[in-house]
Design a protein that fits this description.
The protein has about 300 residues and is α+β, with helices and mostly antiparallel strands. Helix content is about 50%, strand content about 15%. The protein has a single domain (about 15-255), classed as Lambda Exonuclease, Chain A, CATH 3.90.320. It has helices at about 15-25, 25-35, 45-50, 55-75, 85-100, 105, 115-130, 135-145, 195-210, 240-255, 280, 290-295, and strands at about 150, 160, 165-170, 175, 180-185, 220-225, 230-235, 260, 265. The strands form three sheets. The chain has a five-stranded mixed beta sheet with strand order 1-4-5-6-7. Helix 1 (about 15-25) crosses helix 2 (about 25-35).
Length: about 300
């Protein structure tokens, strides 16, 4: 498999599924997430403190992803059977370490303390579902022969070029079997076909760009790990990739429209980044303290 291409740094913004999702959800949240250093209302240290807050669902996903990464890397070195007690002990210890991070649920006084045991049980459910799935047994039987060509959460941000636009599409796990490339993406939350299919098309475009692979021989698979193991497999066509490239272009241009300087990625004034009117998004936003302070002080 050819090396992943490297790109020189440029300040211009790069499209990603998560970036555009934030942009569409709430422009003010988007400003705080990507342009905090340009804010003149609140100290940068305060914005960064709120940005660093994690959540129980997010950290559950992080733990699961990192354990699976360690598991796959272990299989690259050894075929030995998994020692489940040791595997679960490793997972429990990792869960404990990750639960030392600052959590939004505690910061905003939704709970007084974390239930680490409950988080661990959710993580273990996801991992046990994967280990007991037909897909995992298929991986061990069919993909192990090419383990030296596996790509497991590659370093960096997954930068690529889609047409002429910078984009970020970082895969969880890519591996060849026969003449196909498979992309596995682990999900610990609810299924969202529209959002997740778009994300997987990005991964397919990334793989096609970096490895010169025919998109129609790339099989992205979304693996939902709870409450039971289920999959959503995509059949990618060249037309899908072309359509995705148009989406990336249009969404990038939308984000560009909020830049005072596109090439340097300097935003327009903060006031143009409007707050969402949908309270459901505010209730889970790390930056809700900032909006509430402003509301309390007046319009």
């Amino acid at each position: 498999m050819t090396p992943i291409k490297q790109f020189p740094y440029t300040p211009i913004l790069g499209w990603s599924a998560s970036r555009f999702d934030t942009f569409k959800t709430c422009r003010r949240r988007y400003f705080y997430t990507y342009y905090a250093k340009f804010d003149r209302e609140f100290p940068l240290s305060k914005i960064n403190q709120l940005k660093a807050l994690t959540t129980i669902p997010l950290e559950t996903g992080n733990i699961v992803h990192d354990v699976i990464k360690a598991l796959l890397e272990r299989f690259q070195k050894s075929h030995a059977r998994i020692d489940l007690p040791k595997f679960h002990d490793y997972t429990r210890k990792l869960t404990g370490r990750y639960c030392e991070k600052p959590f939004a649920e505690i910061y905003y006084q939704e709970i007084s303390r974390l239930n680490v045991d409950e988080i661990f049980e959710n993580v273990r459910l996801c991992l046990d579902n994967l280990l007991n799935s037909p897909r995992f047994h298929w991986l061990i039987q069919n993909a192990i022969a090419t383990r030296d060509r596996w790509i497991i959460e590659p370093p960096g941000y997954g930068q690529t070029v889609i047409k002429e636009y910078k984009a970020y599409c970082k895969v969880d796990f890519l591996f060849p079997v026969g003449d196909k490339l498979y992309i596995m993406d682990w999900k610990t939350g609810k299924a969202d076909a529209v959002k997740h299919h778009k994300q997987m098309l990005g991964y397919a475009a990334w793989a096609a760009f970096h490895f010169g692979h025919d998109p129609e021989s790339i099989d992205p698979v979304i693996a939902y790990l709870k409450p039971d193991y289920t999959e959503d497999a995509l059949h990618v066509t060249r037309a899908d990739i072309d359509g995705f490239a148009k989406i990336v272009k249009n969404e990038t241009l939308e984000m560009y429209s909020f830049c005072a300087d596109i090439e340097e990625n300097i935003p327009k004034e903060k006031g143009l980044f409007e707050k969402t009117t949908l309270k459901v998004f505010c209730d889970y936003c790390n930056f809700r303290e900032l909006c509430r302070e402003k509301t309390a002080a007046g319009p």
